[in-house]
C-alpha cells in the first residue's frame, strides 16, 4: 500500500474514532428528514430524532439521543466521502480500511465481510469490534466506490446494544442515493 493511501485510510479511521467519542450534545441540529451533501452529490435519511453534525467537507455524523444524563456514549452513523483514485476496487478498499483500523483501534477484531447491494450499487459490508476508553464498540460499515469517489458509511454502537441499533443503521444506509456524475 502506498504511503499516501495509508495516511488517508488512517485519517478515515481516526474520524470514525472521533465520531464514536463524540456525543449527541456535540451535534449541530436535529436531523429533519433527508440530508443532502451538495458538494459530494448524495442524499441519505438519518433515523428520526437523531442529530446531525457536519464535520468538514465530505464528513457528516448522525447521533442518537442520549438515553440518560449518565449515558456516556451516543450511537452514531458517519459518512465519509473521499477520492477513490488510489482504490482500484472494493476489495482493495476493504483491505486498506481493515489495515488502517487494525493500526488505529485497540483490540480491533474483524468479524465478517460480504459483498452486497445498496440501491443498485455494489458495496462491501463489514462488521468489526474494538475497544475505546472503557467501551467495547461494535460497528457495521458499508464501502462503495462510485464515479471516482469512495463512500464509507459506518454505524457504531456499544457492543451490548449493537443489535438494538442495527435496524436503524441498515435502514439509513438503504436511503443512500448518489447522484450520477456529470
From TrEMBL:
GO cellular component, one term: photosystem II oxygen evolving complex
An example Gene Ontology molecular-function term: calcium ion binding
InterPro entries associated with the record: PsbP_C (IPR002683)
Domain PsbP C-terminal: residue ranges: 34-176
Pfam families in the record: PsbP
A GO BP annotation: photosynthesis
Protein name: PsbP C-terminal domain-containing protein
Amino acid at each position: 500500500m502506498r504511503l499516501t493511501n495509508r495516511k488517508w485510510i488512517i485519517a478515515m479511521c481516526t474520524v470514525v474514532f472521533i465520531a464514536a467519542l463524540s456525543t449527541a450534545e456535540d451535534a449541530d441540529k436535529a436531523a429533519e428528514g433527508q440530508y443532502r451533501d451538495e458538494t459530494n452529490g448524495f442524499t441519505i435519511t438519518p433515523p428520526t430524532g437523531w442529530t446531525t453534525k457536519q464535520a468538514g467537507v465530505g464528513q457528516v455524523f448522525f447521533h442518537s439521543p442520549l438515553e440518560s444524563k449518565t449515558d456516556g456514549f451516543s450511537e452514531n452513523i458517519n459518512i465519509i466521502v473521499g477520492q477513490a483514485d488510489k482504490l482500484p476496487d472494493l476489495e482493495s478498499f476493504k483491505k486498506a480500511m481493515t489495515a488502517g483500523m487494525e493500526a488505529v483501534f485497540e483490540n480491533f477484531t474483524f468479524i465478517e465481510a460480504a459483498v452486497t447491494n445498496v440501491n443498485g450499487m455494489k458495496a462491501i459490508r463489514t462488521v468489526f469490534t474494538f475497544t475505546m476508553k472503557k467501551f467495547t464498540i461494535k460497528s457495521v460499515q458499508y464501502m462503495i466506490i462510485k464515479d471516482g469517489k469512495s463512500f464509507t458509511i459506518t454505524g457504531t454502537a456499544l457492543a451490548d446494544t449493537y443489535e438494538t441499533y442495527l435496524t436503524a443503521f441498515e435502514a439509513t444506509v438503504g436511503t443512500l442515493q448518489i447522484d450520477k456524475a456529470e
